[in-house]
Amino acid sequence: MGIWESRVVPRIVDRTCGMAQLDPMRKEACEGLRGRVVEIGFGSGSNIGLYPAEVTEIVAVEPSDVAWELSAPRRSRSSVPVSRVGLDGAQLPLDDASVDTGLVTFSLCTIPNVAGALAELRRVVRPGGTLGFAEHGLSPDPAVARWQHRLDGFQQRFFGGCHLTRDIPKLLADQGFQFERLHQDYLPGPAPSKPWGYVSAGRVSA
User: Fold this and answer.
1) What domain count does the chain have?
2) Radius of gyration (C-alpha) of the chain in whole angstroms
3) Which residues belong to any copy of the Methyltransferase type domain (predicted)?
């Protein structure tokens, strides 16, 4: 991993994924979380402050040391204890059915083995538990989707493996998750931003 990907990209992600306009999607993903929560792709802690009062603990999976360092000020102010438990969402160091709920925001686009990570979430979330999610991904608009496919290689190369063309609801359904709530829309912005701005958020049962 080069300096750009290891040192620069986490700071770009901190700025872009930490924008206030994403907070409504993050809040939607956090709604319904409770108890011990595994959060895959914790990043710089942008969800801190949005967890419901029912959350008692966050076990964070974050591969980037820089992102974890950037999260330190937020973690120090958090009323919910946060511990880093792993680096790879596809290999969670957690026992079966050992967490109450799960959370993933703006990370499924980047995880190399995304199917493996979702399978791991199903394994570690207790029966009856849920997974909250907010992710950008493939647009249903053919014109936007064409641009997403054109830009996908550039996006992956310069932004840490981030894909523009992952169909988030399909990925979740393929792993057996059942949708309780799904909201999809474009983020506010000019038309040229649409390839980056189609977002899916909601909750699925594991």
Assistant:
1) 1
2) 16
3) 38-131
pLDDT > 70? residue 75? yes
Counting DSSP H helices and E strands in the chain, the numbers are: 9, 7
Tokens of 195: 């390839």
Tokens at residue 179, please?
């949708």
CA 197, CA 206: separation in Å to the nearest integer? Answer: 27
CATH of residue 100: 3.40.50.150
Identify the domain containing residue 13 by its residue range.
Answer: 3-205
Predicted pLDDT of residue 1: 59
- For 13-72, write each residue's pLDDT tens digit: 888 888 888 999 999 999 999 999 999 999 999 999 999 999 999 999 999 999 999 999
Q: Write down the residue that tokens 């999260």 correspond to.
A: 71
Would you say the C-alpha torsion 50, 56, 61, 62 has a positive or negative sign? positive
pLDDT at 2 over 80: no
In order, the DSSP letters of 52-118 are -TTEEEEEEE---HHHHHHTHHHHHH-SS-EEEEES-TTS--S-TT-BSEEEEES-TTT-TTHHHHH
115-124 residue pLDDT tens: 999 999 999 9
